[in-house]
Amino acid sequence: MTLSIQFLTMVSMIAGGFYLGVALDTFRRFHRHWKRNVFLVYFMEVSFWLTQVFILYFILFQVNLGELRVYVFVACLLGFAAYQALAATLYKRLLERIIIIASRIYRIIFNLVKNVIIAPIRYLIKFLIASVIFLFNMIMVVLGFFLKCIYLPLKWLLKQVYRLLPKKFKLILHKLAGFYSKIQNICRKYWKLISSKRR
Description:
This protein has helices at 3-30, 38-64, 70-164, 167-198. By secondary structure, the protein is mostly helical.
């Protein structure tokens, strides 16, 4: 390994340690959102550290083909210490500002989408449902009116025909009507008995 590659490796690992400090503070800031779930805490911790190891080793591989030396770890710790001493406080403040701005932008976009897109669609659906119900009621009213117009003359006609029938035929009709009502009552009793057993 030449001196220039060693120098690049040192600089890269110092920058990598600095980046690791930034990533760790960012991760710790959002840790509060899943700290109540033990499984999620372990999963996020393992995922975070595996990701950081992969990123740092990828940087090292680009510089010196992944050759590990003691000074690589020393340089990484130096970069991490430099971040903690020089930039940690400033970065945390900047991160809080970014989070506040991002949350405000999210609320503005959410309210905009809710009021401009979702609310009109909701009112349109309600209007369509109300229109369909109103139209159905109107159809039922008109249909009922036409049925009444047909039923009343038909009823009058049947009464006139019934008056002209012989008495024997009237008795037969009365018996049939009584038999039908008995069958209907029996069916209702059995239906009530079956429905009560199901409950």
